[in-house]
Backbone:
C-alpha cells in the first residue's frame, strides 16, 4: 500500500438529514474520546430538466433542524472533540444522476449555487466557523469519466480558492461505490491536492470473511495510490449482516495500524439507538 505504513485512528463521520426520523444533531452518539467527528448533511441536489443536470443545487435537509445557529451550538457544546459539519452534494437515486446538459454551464451554475448554500450558513453567524466543507456523493453517473472528473474537479477548485467561502471549504471528500469506482478514481487522481478523504462505501458489497474485506481495502488503497490516512471505511445502518463483517474488518485493520477512520450511512435512532456508530467509535478511540 502507498504512503504511510501505519496510521493513528482519528476520525468518524455520520451522514444525516435523510428522512424525518432525525430532527437534530444527535450529539448523544459522539464518543468523547474520538479526536474528530463529522456530521455530513445530505443532500444538496440539483434540478434536472428532461433528465439532464443543470448544476442548480438546493439543500434537501430541514434547514430549521440543522440551522447555522444549531451548528455553532453543537461545536461549542463539544469543544473537547473537533466537530465539523459538511454538506453532501449529489444523491443516491436515479433522479439525482450526474448527467450535465452542458458542462461549462453546469460548472458555472454548480459553483454559484453551492456557494449560495454555504453563504446561507456563513452569513447567519459570520463570526463563527459553521460549515467545514463538501462531500461529493453521486451514486448514479451517466456522463463520461472525464466529464465527471472535469466538472466536479473544477467546482471543487473554484470553491476552494474563492476568498468569500474558502473558510467553509477546509474539507473535501468523495464517496465512491463499486459501480462508480472508475469515475471517482479519475476524479481523485486528477484533483488529489484538493481532496482530503475517500469515503468508500464498503456496505454496497458483500464479504464472506474479514479476509475478503481486507483484500478489497488493500486493493483500493493501492489503486488510489494514496496514504492510509485519507481512506475511510463505510458502514450502513441498513445492512446489519454486511455491517458485522465490515466492523470486524475495521477492528482487524485498527489492530494493524491501517485504519484512520470510518463513516456510517446514515443516522437512525432505531433500538438500540446508534449501535454501529457507538461500536465503531469505541474501536477507534481505544487504538
Residues:
Amino acid at each position: 500500500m502507498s504512503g504511510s505504513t501505519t496510521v493513528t485512528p482519528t476520525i468518524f463521520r455520520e451522514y444525516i438529514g435523510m428522512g424525518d426520523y432525525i430532527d437534530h444533531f444527535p450529539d448523544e452518539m459522539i464518543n468523547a474520546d474520538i479526536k474528530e467527528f463529522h456530521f455530513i448533511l445530505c443532500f444538496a441536489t440539483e434540478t434536472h430538466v428532461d433528465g439532464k443536470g443543470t448544476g442548480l443545487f438546493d439543500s434537501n435537509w430541514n434547514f430549521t433542524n440543522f440551522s447555522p445557529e444549531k451548528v455553532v451550538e453543537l461545536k461549542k457544546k463539544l469543544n473537547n472533540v473537533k466537530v465539523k459539519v459538511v454538506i453532501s452534494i449529489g444523491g443516491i437515486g436515479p433522479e439525482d444522476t450526474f448527467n450535465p446538459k452542458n458542462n461549462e454551464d453546469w460548472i458555472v451554475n454548480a459553483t454559484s449555487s453551492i456557494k449560495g448554500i454555504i453563504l446561507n450558513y456563513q452569513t447567519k453567524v459570520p463570526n463563527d466557523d459553521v460549515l467545514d466543507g463538501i462531500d461529493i456523493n453521486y451514486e448514479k453517473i451517466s456522463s463520461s469519466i472525464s466529464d465527471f472528473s472535469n466538472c466536479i474537479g473544477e467546482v471543487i477548485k473554484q470553491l476552494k480558492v474563492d476568498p468569500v467561502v474558502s473558510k467553509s471549504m477546509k474539507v473535501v471528500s468523495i464517496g465512491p461505490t463499486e459501480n462508480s469506482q472508475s469515475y471517482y478514481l479519475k476524479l481523485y487522481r486528477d484533483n488529489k491536492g484538493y481532496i482530503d478523504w475517500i469515503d468508500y462505501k464498503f456496505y454496497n458489497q458483500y464479504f464472506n470473511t474479514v479476509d475478503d474485506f481486507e483484500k478489497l481495502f488493500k486493493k483500493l488503497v493501492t489503486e488510489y495510490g494514496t496514504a492510509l490516512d485519507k481512506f475511510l471505511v463505510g458502514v450502513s445502518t441498513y445492512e446489519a449482516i454486511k455491517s458485522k463483517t465490515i466492523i470486524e474488518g475495521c477492528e482487524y485493520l485498527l489492530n494493524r495500524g491501517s485504519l484512520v477512520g470510518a463513516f456510517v450511512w446514515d443516522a437512525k435512532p432505531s433500538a438500540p439507538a446508534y449501535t454501529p456508530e457507538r461500536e465503531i467509535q469505541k474501536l477507534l478511540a481505544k487504538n
Q: What stands out?
A: The chain has a mean pLDDT of 94. The CA atoms of residues 109 and 215 lie 40 Å apart. The chain has seven helices and nine strands. Strands lie at 11-16, 36-49, 52-59, 82-91, 133-138, 171-174, 197-200, 231-236, 261-265.
